[in-house]
Amino acid sequence: MLSRALVQIAAIAALASALTIRDDAAEVVEAVEYEVKTDLLGRPGGSGGSLKRLDWKDVKPLIPTTWSGKNYGCKCAPGQSCWPGTSKWNQLNSTDASYEYKMDIQNVLTNTMDETPRGASTSGCTYVNEADPYQPNWGDRFWGSGYPGLQTARAKWDPKGVFYATATPGTEDWEVIDYGTKFLRKLWDQ
Q1: From its phi and psi, is residue 52 left (phi > 0), alpha (psi between -120 and 50) or beta?
Q2: If DSSP codes are grouped into helix, strand and coil, which group holds residue 79?
Q3: What is the dihedral sign for C-alpha 140, 112, 177, 131?
Q4: Mean pLDDT of 37-52
């Protein structure tokens, strides 16, 4: 179980990281979803960055922004945000963006925004379905010291590596060839 203080630190680190990257906060990509809990997230306030409890009135209501209702955004009126830098935020869904644009955003998310929380917990953990397969050493980060054993088991039951699931042992040979389509080159080259 994580302590409340650790969760507060991680949440603040994530926000600080986001504000460091996107000072004007022109967009929040659909890949980033945060569930805000009022009793876990502190906010900077006053001199010295003291923490104050985040009240529900400070959190703008989440509203659907796409036809599917899957993606949610938070529209904030200027001057009404709990953090001044976020008062200009408005989610822009990138459902019709090019693959190159989405990968550029993924690169920023993985190598800049997520770097601070990863550094705060070098022995952290993640749920596989929330894992970021683009981060460095993802096998060790998700599976720890058991990763080589999992690769061995995978090779036993799937020797050609034809079954694919994101961020699972044995998927290193798969590559993206066209707008997210996966391709197992070693089978093609045989």
Answers
A1: beta
A2: coil
A3: positive
A4: 34
